[in-house]
Amino acid sequence: MKTLEYDTVVIGGGPAGIAAAIKATELGLKTILIENRDLLGGIPLQCVHTGFGLHYFKEDLTGTQFVTRLLDKLEKLRVEYLLKAHVHSIEYLDYDKKLVNVVTPQGVVRILTKTIIYTTGARERHLYEIGVVGDRPDGIYTAGEAQTLMDIYGIMPGREVVIIGSGDVGLIMARRFALEGAKVKAVIEILPYPGGLMRNVMQCLRDYNIPLLLGHTVVKVVGKKRVEKVIVAKVDENFKPIEGTEFEIPCDTVVLSVGLRPYLKVLEKLGIHIDPATGGPVVNEYLETNIPGVFVAGNALVVNDLVDYAVEQGELAAEGAKVFIENKGIPTKNWKLVEKGRNIRLVVPHAVSGERDVIIYARVANPERNVYVQIPELGFRLFSYGVRPAEMIWFKLRKDMFSKLGADVNKITLEVKPR
Amino acid sequence: MSKELELTCIICPASCTLKVTVEDNKVIKVEGNLCPRGVEFAKNELSNPVRYVMSVVKVRGGDLPTVSVVTRNPVPKNCIWQVMEALAKVEVEAPVEIGDVIVKDICGTDIIATRRAKKI
Amino acid sequence: MSDKYRVVIVGAGVVGSSIARVLSMYENFDITLVEKEPDVGWGASKANTSIVHPGHEEEPDVHPLRAKLCVKGNEMWRTWAKELEIPVTFPGELMVFTNDEEEKKAREYIKLARLNNVPGVRIIYQEELRVLEPNIAREAKGAVYAPTGGLISPFEAVIAVVENAVENGVKLMTETEVLGVKVSEGRVKGVETNRGFIEADIVINAAGLYSDKITHSAGVELNFQVKPRKGEYLLFDEDIPVKPTRVLHTTPTPITKGVYAITTVHGNVLIGPTAEDLPIEAKGDASTSVKGLDYVYQEASKLLREMPPRSRVIRTFAGLRPEPPGGHWLIKAYSDPWGFVNAAGIRSPGFTSAPAIAEYVANLISETFDIKLVKKTNWNPYRRDITRLNNRPLSEIDELIKKNPAYGEIVCYCKTVSKAEILEAVDRMIKTGIKTITLDGLKFRTYAGFGMCQGAFCRWRIAKIVSEKLGVPLYDVTVKRTKYGIGDVKTLWVERKG
Fold first, then answer.
1. Among A260, B32, B47, B110, fewest CB within 10 Å belongs to which?
2. Which of residues 469-488 of C touch A (CB under 8 A)?
3. Which of 3.30.9.10, 3.40.50.620, 2.30.30.50, 3.90.1210.10 is the CATH number of C93-147+227-323?
4. How much is the pLDDT for C1?
């Protein structure tokens, strides 16, 4: 078995990983990017729709265009990468020594590294974890799987489709199915509001007369060989189906768009702390986990609604790796915890230093209109016409805002308050 | 007589809720937009709604069996199916570069590739 | 024409497959194993609790065969599992009681254990219970400890048994449904199937849930009816904090063996089953229900000190078990019609007993049909498992890759399954005589898709390997019973317009 040595190993060749590898290389770190598949790019390679890059490139691009720009930069910088390379396990030897064991078609490669940037993305939640019961026929796909089939391999999963969940991927796939000639019978959402962006509700569903059933759930899948129908019911305020409201929707295909969960299999075995709210790791403002020198970015950190954020996080993690290596560990001694206040469901990072500018990513628990997003300890306050769980709250806290904060204060609280 | 209606701007993910005031079939006021494109969207949406059309076409000899495509400019909504029909019949040869014209001059625009197809 | 008896076994579940393996030891038979499904073991053999029962729950005066063959089967699986490389463990079983009434009932099983010669069964209390099972629920008072209780991978067991039987000359015919047994002049002549007539001198009915239909067509046991009994299960991820170390179950009631909580041989926590008697028409209804799953979850909480959260469920499923009249197995060889054998209505503990049932059936055949069994000299008892990467040291993985780079291409991230394993499974399916390569069949052979993502990451990847290997379009790959896709997006568009 071959052993290689690097300053940083980036695991996962999607947007966050590519951005991290580029940034780390630019910062002068000896970097290698590891990717499972036989090509770099990750999920945006199958995103043929626009809406990518407005934040990062200040241009409206398709996912494919967005990620190709990053890839061209990666190639130009001659960043090293391994394809068809699967991270089998990570061994923690010392704070600045980790061994990454990689299975490749050329054999097992062992990489000794000071830092790790973990960018493996998220997995799609499936039928069983959301508690749908009934038969287990063919014809059930996750939205991402359906997207791979249609937009990479050009094959049609089915003719008559019911989509469970109104997350953006589900809405986008509703339009893709409709455009390619399938009949999309309905998009079914258990919450009283859509899971994805309003823009996608308009241009993906409304344009194609696809019904969006809010406050409904699929209570049962029926089908002997392939899906034959789904039984749908209204739900009460506790998301329990209301008896007597059931009706059938005949279909041959069920597509699931019921959310993503950070996929951290290998890191979990290493003992990282998980935040139940994000499903991702607990991190400080460099996106470093409780394991020194192990950083996480992109959807493996927190499920983002813009790829731009994933890229931003990848770059930040690379900066963190640089700081870590230069200082033999992140030098901050006095962390301030970021606590969740009123109507905040999740927030990343979990600890800030006040020693540098920091970007806060958060989601609310419930939609609310005309509110302040605020951190009372810092006197920080941001007005918003409306906050929705589907739309990530993004803002920057400048270093100078922390100057008012007493040295003994070890937490700040993010909250949403009505105006 | 003026009337007010609500639209969701689809130009970018901000999804601004637009309050549009219309008088004699003309947009006279748009509120709720975070950028000027919201005004343009509202005007278009009420007179001649347009959409980008995104899909894939078959590719021969490429690293992947399809390339993704988009209309260079938005096309009138009632042209969407005409675009899709044209795309169903097209098959291109790898290599394809982003920006390559896949179908020329359809519904007043071209269809261009948005994914690279490497020749294999 | 050869002088061998032509044998058709109806049903490639664990019973039919075991009978095939045992009969393949002898020179006397030319065996065809017939299965209506695309793969082996897709009936009751697949969706069960995966337990090798100790045999202390069978009343010898009511169910003498069940009592005898269960204990023997428990012993035999130990040998079979070694010979066939089937994942199996024997952590022992704890029948847990929480109150005096249950304790009284539990004590009856000690008596049964003695009558059935089940080794080592005894009552244990608080302290010892907590030593044996550190994760036991707080309210547990004691348990009946049966040290011979085991766990097996049921679907792999059937696959292994069939592979070995085929290796020893058995012919497998999948997607072949027996429509009826043909009898003429007091003898069986063969079976009518959807693929035509198969001649046979001996027909063995191991059709599980449908074994009533088969025996009726042979003109015997016309009152025998097999009803479906449904069992629902919840399967959890491997990575949960509190997992059972032993086979745990609640004290059985007259209608169920109780709810179990186990850690499968693959490390997942499995809880279940319900025991719901369905009408005879409902033999195809293996649907799950909210009520059933909630019940199982609640019952299992009497066993574990901390239940895995519902959010860690990776799959819910239900199995239909055959329930014969009075719970009595129907194992019998007939001289009228000569050549007909029933191994029908094999309900629990059928899986455990299958190897012993097979031997019992072989003896019945020998005695009833006066056949002097002659052992083959070249019978091969061994079957190698698929070479797997999971749980293998890195140095060995490296060596495997050096020999075959396909071991270096990981397709299933959750279970670390390589392309080489998928390809080996495809080859084995073809070699075994399976007509259609299904993604489901590959999943049960390789574990790819068995993890937390349930195939969201890997199903298309595996389908692509199959499509390339078999030279069929990706959309034409079979998932379980239908195709992965309906066709090419653009071709369909043109056709629709056309």
1. B47
2. 473-475, 479-488
3. 3.30.9.10
4. 45
